[in-house]
Amino acid sequence: MDKILMGHGSGGSMMHELIANHFAPAFGMEGMFSDAAVLDAKAEGRLAMCTDSYVVSPIFFPGGNIGELAVNGTVNDLSMVGARPLYLTAGFIIEEGLPFDDLVRIVSSMAEAAKAASVKIVAGDTKVVERGKGDGIFINTAGVGIIPEEVELSASRVSPGDRIIISGSIGNHGMAVMAERNGLSFDPPVLSDTAPLSTLVRDMLKRPEGVCLMRDPTRGGLATTLNEFARETNLCMSIKEELIPLVPGVRGACDLLGLDPLYVANEGILVALVRPDVAEYLLEAIGKHPSGEMAAIIGSVEAEPAGAAILKTGIGGSRILQMLQGEQLPRIC
Amino acid sequence: MDKILMGHGSGGSMMHELIANHFAPAFGMEGMFSDAAVLDAKAEGRLAMCTDSYVVSPIFFPGGNIGELAVNGTVNDLSMVGARPLYLTAGFIIEEGLPFDDLVRIVSSMAEAAKAASVKIVAGDTKVVERGKGDGIFINTAGVGIIPEEVELSASRVSPGDRIIISGSIGNHGMAVMAERNGLSFDPPVLSDTAPLSTLVRDMLKRPEGVCLMRDPTRGGLATTLNEFARETNLCMSIKEELIPLVPGVRGACDLLGLDPLYVANEGILVALVRPDVAEYLLEAIGKHPSGEMAAIIGSVEAEPAGAAILKTGIGGSRILQMLQGEQLPRIC
User: Could you read off the pLDDT of B207-231 as tens digits, one per residue?
Assistant: First the structure.
């Protein structure tokens, strides 16, 4: 049997074998991997809960695949609300005919990513749809985490003068997927930045009073995240173009494809609004992480124009950054 | 705008408008409905967590639609481990071109179902895939609930002599979907049994010592659930054919389509293994619920043959019920 068949999503014996032979061992369950799990931890602190469905195309791309993306993305969603990620569920929607080996590679990547992020995949579900009614594999992950008592991330805590920190260079994930999709290769290759941000956030939150709001700029890119911040705080997010970390490969790929890196998706960086007096401390803390080497303070929060994101260019000009309109890069995550 | 476009899944302004105008008001969020939520409840008791993806085709069927199915199904998964369902997430994978009105109807059904089951949909995610890469809409729901201290559902608590209770008639959901898919209609119509089991379970668990194990026989039907029980307990699940509740319409539809109702999916009933001394009490408690009117004790747990499910027929014969092999009814939930 080298391909996924409709029977693998039947609820019957083929599905039970798939789970017993592949999912359960990969995710460290002994024999069982059902759609509901009883967790041994009690909640101390507030619960956080999140969900994300992954439909990235192609499912394998430079620097990652849909499986690790699905784990890291949900770990990061929890991290962005200040939670310590604990448990994930995984829901698979597989197109009939997916090579069995692809599924095994993806599940194995998920298991590795979960281990790296210290989360446990505790429950799962498998559906199979007919050929032509899906596209290889879609994965939903939902996550639960605990927010420590002292952590309070909220738009209401942001005030003018706060600094805007970014933890790494922008556009890597989106351009890696676009390159693969268009048959382009770069030297050195542009790799997805997919990575868990949980340990980086844990270290930042050693100074919880200094961190007001965080977000990972995924779909819609940095420009859309800054717009969300501006709307939620009713303040202005002002950044300087020359301070934004951007690797030459991504810049080149964006130029080639006519894309603005400010709108390209990222999967392993965060943007944080932080108190000015701890900004340098946080920058240093982020810089100690493998995915934080290019971290930078790229601007600050201002009072006016309220609700807007502004890009200041090198020659002294400035422009308003709109939220992403329409669809720039479909199915990037 | 009467159809879903790729831009509705962009992460940008079109998606924000969809969320602000439709999802957030339906789910009772003021303006925000993001992919991560901070929950105000602390856990008292053990946490339960579950996930299920819904790919039912067609998305509207007699007695329900994919939206309420997605809420009820996950409420029921939590209920089956003894948890009180509290929070749900919703992940949408929409095919470009889905009529906007269909999405609105589905979301509205989800909101109603959540209200009826007293759960809150706290976070969501929306992806759009190109026409021909999906099939209308797929929905993942993940859920979190709390298991009261006194509840302990476990295969290890089951022993020979325990009774097998079913809360309602079998096969209604599967045959309603199959009828719709095949353009068949019945008089009276066969309706899906989609319903939340949470209040029914709450009432059963007023006698927690009497309830050993529960499951909702969805994909794979009653026969597959009994096989799961038999394997997990290493005991025999023995049921009598004449005691199984089955409405004439479902029997007729199964005969017409050549299907065995024991393998047809259900979405609003449960099977429970219960202590013999409380079986009658529980039967009465279940019978007081709208979805429990046809509840019945259909058999009992026996020591031998270990690991098997046995159907005793009216004429004194018996046959081993296998787990569902291959795929009988694809995309039933």
Answer: 999 999 999 999 999 999 999 999 9
What the block records as the tokens of A196 is 């868990």
In DSSP terms, A60 is beta-bridged to: A65
- Express each pLDDT in B36-77 by its tens digit: 788 765 656 788 999 999 999 999 999 999 999 999 999 999
ipTM of the complex: 0.94
CB contact, 8 Å: B135 with chain A? Answer: yes
Instruction: List chain A domain ranges.
Output: 13-147, 155-320
Give, in words, the CATH class of A13-147.
alpha beta
CA distance B252 to B248: 6
Give residues 107 to 126 of B whose Cβ lies within 8 Å of A: 122-125
From chain A, the residues in CB contact with B9 under 8 A are 327, 330
Q: Which residues of A touch B53 (CB under 8 A)?
A: 91-93, 125, 127, 140
Is the CATH number 3.90.650.10 carried by domain A155-320? yes
Phi, psi of B72 (to 5 degrees): -60, -40
A95 backbone dihedrals φ, ψ, rounded to 5°: -80, 130
Residue A111 and residue A23: Cα distance in Å, rounded? 9
- Which residues have C-beta within 8 Å of that of residue B164, sequence separation ≥ 6? B226, B237, B238, B239, B271, B272, B273, B297, B298, B299, B300, B301
Q: Is the overall model pTM greater than 0.90, yes or no?
A: yes
Is residue B48 classed as helix, strand or coil in its secondary structure? strand
Instruction: With beta carbons under 8 A apart, name residues in chain B contacting A181.
Output: none
**CA A314 vs CA A240, A241, A243, A323: distances in Å:** 8, 7, 10, 22
Q: Do A81 and B14 touch (CB under 8 A)?
A: no
